[in-house]
Amino acid sequence: MKNPAPAETPLHDLIIHRWSPRAFGDKAVSPAILKGLFEAARWAPSSSNSQPWVYIVATRDDKENFDKVLSTMVEFNQGWARNAAVLAISVAQIKNKEGKPNTYAFHDVGSASAQLSFQAVADGLYVHQMAGFDANKAREVFHIPEDWQAVAAIAIGYPGDPNSLPDKLKERELAPRSRKKLADFVMTGDWGHPSSFVQK
C-alpha cells in the first residue's frame, strides 16, 4: 500500500512516499538492509558533530528483546506495532562530556531518525515513530544511563494490508493525508507574517 503526499510543489519521491502506516506485513527485514537504515542515521548532521544518538533495536525473531521494546509502548500502539518486523527506541544524550545540558540533542536525534526514514522508503520499508511510549520504563528495562533520555519508539517494516487493522485504524490508514499550509509556518520579519514566496 502507498499513500503519497499531495504536495503543492514537486518533491523527491523519497519525501512524497514517506508516511507512517500502522499496517505492517510479515516479511522480515534483512540484516544488510537494517544495517543500511542505521548507516543513514549515522551520517545525519548534529551540533558540533556530537552525534548524540543511540538506537535500541530488536527484530521480531528476537522475541525477548522485541517484547521488551513493545512493553514500553502504550496499549494502543502495542496493538498494531507488534506486527512490525523491527521495533526500536531512539535515545538522546542530553548532557555533553562536560556534564552540561545538550539543548540540541532531541533535534539531532530527530534529524538522524529522518534520514533513517528516507533510507527506509528507498528500501521499500516504512517507519512509524511514536510519542506513545513510557520513557521511564524504557530507562528501567534497558538500563539507560541518567545522562541519556529515550525520545521515541519506532516501528519498521514492509507495508501490510490495511484490512488487517481494526475499523477505526483502517479508516485512518486510508484517509487522505493533510498538512498545514506553508503560510502557517514559513515567516519573514515579524512573527505571524508569512513569507511572500509561500503565498504565490
Kindly describe this structure.
- The chain contains 7 helices and 4 strands.
- The protein has helices spanning 13-16, 31-42, 63-71, 75-81, 105-122, 135-142, 167-174, and strands at 53-59, 86-93, 126-130, 148-157.
- A 4-stranded antiparallel β-sheet has the order 1-2-4-3, with helices on both faces.
- The longest helix has 18 residues, at 105-122.
- The chain is globular, with a radius of gyration of 18 Å.
- The mean pLDDT is 96.
What descriptors fit this protein?
single chain; globular; alpha+beta; 33% helix; 4 strands; 15% strand; 200 residues; four-stranded antiparallel sheet
Instruction: Give the biggest sheet.
Output: 4 strands, antiparallel
Number of strands: 4
C-alpha end-to-end distance:
33 Å
Percent helix, as a range, is: 25-40%
β-sheet strand percentage: 15-25%
Determine the structural class based on helices, strands and strand pairing: alpha+beta
Rg from alpha-carbon coordinates: 18 Å
Output the strand order for the largest sheet: 1-2-4-3
Overall, the morphology is globular
- SSE sequence, one letter per element: HHEHHEHEHEH
Low-confidence stretches: none
Name the average pLDDT: 96
Tally of DSSP helical segments: 7
Task: Summarize the topology.
Elements: H1 13-16, H2 31-42, E1 53-59, H3 63-71, H4 75-81, E2 86-93, H5 105-122, E3 126-130, H6 135-142, E4 148-157, H7 167-174
Antiparallel strand pairs: 1-2, 2-4, 3-4
Structure summary:
The chain is of the alpha+beta class and 200 residues long. It is built from seven helices and four strands.
